[in-house]
Amino acid sequence: NENFMKGAKWLTDLKLRASWGTNGNQAIANGAAYSLFDTGTSTSPYIVWGIWNYGTSYDIAGNRTGTIASGYRRTQTGNPGLKWETSTQWDLGFDYNLWNYKLYGTFDWFSKNTYDILIKPSVISTQGEGADRYENGASMTNKGIEFTIGTRGKSSFGLTYDINANISTYRNVVTYLPESVLASYPGNGTTHTVIGRNLQSYYGFVENGLYKTESELNDGINVGALNKGKGLGRIKWVDQNGDGEITLDDRVFLGSPEPAFSFGLNVNLGFKNWDFSMFWDGKIGYYAFTPDKSQRTLFVTDMGSNKGADILKAWDPVLNPNSSIPALTTANNNNETATSTYFYENHSYGKLRNLTLGYTLPEKASRCIGLNRIRIYVTGQNLCWFKSKDYTGWDPEMTSLSYPLAKTFLGGLQISF
Question: How many CB atoms lie within 10 A of CB 278?
């Protein structure tokens, strides 16, 4: 409203946004819905057959061209009740500029509901070759908010600046799960299911330190198949159901890989011929698996490979009686490689992704050698980070075994003719 904008002198610009849409998903393997045979000759229009000999040429459309194969095998079974995966999404937001564009930003909210997610769950081998088939799995909802705010301008002594920050949060919740696919998702498929939780929730055992004294071994938990190695220097497993045994029923949901918040910060400064930029990002409330912890602290994991220095701090009644790292062993009799809170840590971090300092030669100096512009700059990437004190790994971004991001330094010369 023009009159409203004139009356609100602090409000320079405001744009409202809203959208709604629905779409499907056909992200399954090419040819998965076709029979190898001509129309009318296949025993089932839903069963997919493949050439027995790997590399033999054939026509997937069923035209019987190419080299004659020596045989056929079933690659998957049919599912006549299969439906396309569909998603419906709402987006609401606004862009704003205040005080003559000195303060600016955006706000966005979205809600996405996805139904009948397409998956191919694993099947037991006794069902025979090609027994697996596509199923409609979980339905879920995704909701999130992102807010950005920035300021720009020029100071009285000539410093130009543009500083902006953003913060976002996202939640994923499974709303429905057919019984036929329960075993393909986290949980035990009966009393503990992923319904009402994040699609990629962690499910496993809870550890409670190490057994360090003989008296601690008398905790009422009997030795069974999953903790037959119970002893000094071994992990204490929590008996969740109080039956005096450590079984698969003692597993619980440990959380999800989604952070509580993600954030970013951009700083761009200029003073005379100098320019400076800096970019930070990070995650808060980010609990995830530390994949290298097994390699660093458990000797039983891939014993023929190199180990991290942390393994030298393993529990020992004389040398390291207060250590939180299990005693060295060549047998995994206490089930210590299982998914558990031993590997689940606070991965919250803030990282300096990029830092750049540049200098542009005066225009007169550039013109003297027939150039329009000469800029010299140096850049550093992944220079430092802040992390949770509870995190023990190499890089808090790592949730699978990989090399940590390296620090890099670059220098450059930009020339414009």
Answer: 18
Residue 220 DSSP code: S
Distance, in Å, from the CA atom of 124 to the CA atom of 47, rounded to the nearest integer, reads 18
- Single out the residue of 317, 329, 131 nearest to residue 228, CA to CA: 329
Of 117, 148, 329, 140, residue with least CA distance to 233: 329
Tokens linked to 176? 């429905």
pLDDT for 224-271, tens place per residue?
999 999 999 999 999 999 999 999 999 999 988 899 999 999 999 999
Integer Cα distance of 391 and 224 in angstroms: 31
Residue 116 tokens read as 């009948």
Q: Which residue has the tokens 């002198």?
A: 9
Q: E-assigned strands of 122-271?
A: 135-136, 139-154, 159-176, 202-204, 207-210, 235-237, 252-255, 261-271
Q: Specify the pTM.
A: 0.79
Token pair recorded at residue 140: 């879920």
**243 three-state secondary structure:** coil
Give me Rg for the CA atoms of the chain: 30
In angstroms, rounded to a whole number, what is the distance separating the alpha carbons of residues 339 and 334? 13
